[in-house]
Design brief:
Elements (H helix, E strand, L loop, with lengths): L2 H22 L4 H6 L10 H13 L5 H6 L17 H7 L4
């Protein structure tokens, strides 16, 4: 058996171990609601890449970005009264 034969098993084992740790972590509950099975979704690779790009750059339909382009009055989270950024929604906000 060579390395290329073992590689899929190593990948599967490490992904499974990481997924268990990911699900046990209490941070990022809003993100877990969006991607409950991590990245195993029916989205195409392009669509998933676009979503991740928008989340990473902050160019998404959150109040902070919407206020920057003139579509929201103050950019604050409706519940927490702080800027509604990707970081706030995925790590801090208690609305989920």
């Amino acid at each position: 058996m060579n390395f290329t034969d073992i590689l899929p098993y190593l990948y599967q084992h490490s992904f499974h171990a990481w997924e268990i740790q990911y699900q046990a972590d209490t941070r990022g509950n809003a993100y877990k609601v969006i991607f409950p099975a991590l990245l195993r979704s029916c989205l195409s690779t392009h669509a998933l890449s676009a979503i991740i790009f928008h989340l990473c750059t902050g160019h998404c339909h959150l109040n902070h970005h919407m206020s920057r382009i003139g579509l929201h009055p103050d950019g604050l989270c409706d519940r927490c009264e702080v800027p509604e950024t990707v970081e706030h929604v995925t790590e801090v906000c208690t609305r989920v």
